[in-house]
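Ticket #4471: structure export looks truncated?
Reporter: QA, pipeline team
Priority: medium

Steps to reproduce: submit the single chain below to the structure queue and open the exported record.
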Amino acid sequence: MGLTRVNLLAGLLGSYIIRDPVVEEPLGLPNGDEFDRPLVVFDRSFRTDGSIFMSSIGNNPDIHPQWQPEYFGDAIIVNGKAWPRLTVRRRKYRFRIINASNARFFRFFFSNGLRFTHVASDSAYIEKPVTTNETLVGPSEITDIVVDFSQSKTNVAILANDANYPYPSGDPVNEDNGKVMKFIILPDQEVDTSRLPRRLVEYPVVDLSSVTHTRYVAMYEYVSKIDEPTHLYLNAKPFEAPVTETPRVGSTEVWYVINLTEDNHPLHIHLGLLKVFDQTALVELEEFKECMTKKNDAVKCNLKKHARGKKVAVPDHEKGWKNVFKMIPGHVTKIAVRFSYIHTNASYSFDATAEPGYVYHCHVLDHEDNAMMRPLKLVN
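Actual output as written to the record:
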């Protein structure tokens, strides 16, 4: 904690794909290095000599000499290159797009109207393909899509971004950070033997009757006298405080994640996979915030009374199992968390109770570094 944002900014990141031929080959999706490509997307700023720039002056230098609430770069980088281009054939390609930014959200779309067909999200397939015109991807999320360039009416397509930063209520994108990469589409049609199956992979359903525990996780942001963020906590506790989340190996829990801040926070629970049921706006929010600030207890502060605003539907392509999910500000998000293998519901093949344990945290790197992270200890 404290240096993750700097280490990744310096380039300590990469991707690899773990495949299961028994499951995946029958699907007939685009495959091979040319047609199945990871796209690792992030933002960086550079000095005139080409070295990476990160301000060394914090927003509250008397409190944190170097920490800033979020890092945003001027240039968009894909697989190590700024605003790259890729020549593609008129056929289907699979792109596993990883948002490796410190804090930037991307809402991707194509300038020429090409569409995304989602086949998986993070590390799990969805049940059937879902086609969209755009897709919102938070830090550390993976959107796994197929793009059919044979449907393009132009020979050039720009993958673009229009997500405000910080998301959702920050500055609009500009000409530089609104562009991601260019696809140059060859003119000739060709035979494409890959396909989009009607069904993908189905996992065992969430059995709420087997839920062993219900937890409430509140997200807090604290500010200085000049209204600049100083730190962020989960459940008003620093990372060093004794562990309070002790799920059983093999169990399913329900978590209500309450975002009391103005930012969207992508929540990542190590070892556990999550499935989102719904997101509900909190009414009489300031009253609820005041109570939570004093008591830090969602039950005593009558969450049920306040969680009766407009519900936000979970996008169809994000209804499967996720590693990370975006927690909307001013909302409570109900999720199921599974602490076992999701494809069989079997327990882990290793000792998940071994030290030092695990963590859960906001995946905006600047937030988790200061100290929006808590320990997670699995028990038998």
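Status: closed, not a bug. The export was complete when the record was re-opened. Leaving a note from the reviewer for reference: The first helix runs from residue 4 to 9.
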